[in-house]
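B., you asked whether I could sanity-check this one before it goes into the benchmark set. Here's the sequence:
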Amino acid sequence: MLLATLAYGVQNVHAQTIVHAVNSDDLIATSAKADFGNTGVATSIWGGYQIVANVFENNGNAILNWHEYANIFPDGEIIIQDAKDPDIEFYTNMDLLFVAYYNSNGVFINSYTLSTLNGYNYWNTIQLSSSPDVKSVNIDYSQNAFYPQSGTGTIIWEEDGTIFSSSFDPSFSVPMPVVPIAMGTEPDIAINHSDKYSITYINPNQDLVSENGSLPSLMGGFHAPFYTHVEPAVGGYFFHSPRIAAPHEIQSTGIFYNQDGYAVTAILQNSGTSEHLVWAKYIENNNAIMNTDISWGGDHAINTFPVVTFANGHVKFQWTSDYSPNPIYPIIWSYNPSNPAFDILSLELNPYDPTSMSDIYEINLAQGAGFEYCKSSISGARTYQSNGVAFNFTAYLYNHRSQIFNKWLYDFADPKRLSQHNNEFDFYNEDQNYYLEGENMQDYSYSLFNIQGQEIDLGSNISIHNSEVSFTINELAQGMYIFKCTNDAVSESFKIMVTK
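And here's what the prediction gave me:
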């Protein structure tokens, strides 16, 4: 394991519970076949408009559709012929949106202009590459210090094991150079609010790489990163499916993001076991402020295709998961066993406060096998006001076999944003001593597991009373542990992280 790299020490702990969704899924498309592929979602508020734009791959084409929640202009849909792996971003307002994709002729970006009469209309196309061997196309667009009003777009892709990037202006009028980045796969890119860009990719050693460079240099044809962070793949583990995001608002609910900060997520998989860890890190000022597994307790679930965004003072991570019971390795997440364990899951935290990690929230209200393999997308609200404050809502795009859904949710002050959850316990620590308080505590059984799922004998270190359970961790080795409290009706899990 890579636990030695964890940035968190002993901290306040949190019940790792899957909170089931209560908000309805908005069905936006169906298909006779289970052939929905890559997806992208973007959301924005501007001048009273409230809009979510979706793009998704279906049967070799890309489908762009949009919904305006204030009903100022009509919903609509455009089919982009022969378009694979689409991604989508808004301009600094909603007057333009951009869709990037590839086909056998290379890499392309389409632009679409807004009409209040009929929504979006095709405007222009730019071609960035003519290679037939393209994969993993991703874009970002943001205001920045170099272009504080009109902003800049960036695009990144892979050609036969080599990563390339370029930039674009909103009218596609100024040709920008295509820049070789590195040998690697699965790249993603984000523009920082300063004059920098950040990228992530998997290198040939299957390490997770993230870099931060000068946006003017990229626009001039050079990639010369200021900072490179490599999370090594060791001990039978390897990384895949990385994604990156940077905040497009600098201030939100009292949280001040660093202009050069960015968040990265990826799957850390073990080639010899069923482990699929959801890895997350937040980097600013060339330091990894956060660098950890956020799927603890469910590392042996089949977690796939993570994504990340910034919203409302938090970093939001999302991934798909099959966390059905594992006969060899226990999955210690607490959840309602009557619901199928095939879901899109989300977790959020304040990157400056490791104790802020939320419960895991189920995004899909509909249930059933199929959600666990989709390539979902997430987007925090994008708006550019003079004070940099963003409106607090998030858009989600995900599919279940032959159906694809959208969800648009406000973020509330309560950290349990997606559902209602009744937590019956209070779990806290004082130095090496931990306490679980509640009612009728003698009616539960208690167990402690390490990150490999092996039970640790608490022996005489645990004391059980009617309203409180206490135990000490001074004999535990450094690492991550799960404390579990169960009876016939309730199962709750709590995380403990120990450093020496």
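One thing to flag: The chain has a mean pLDDT of 83. Otherwise nothing jumped out at me.
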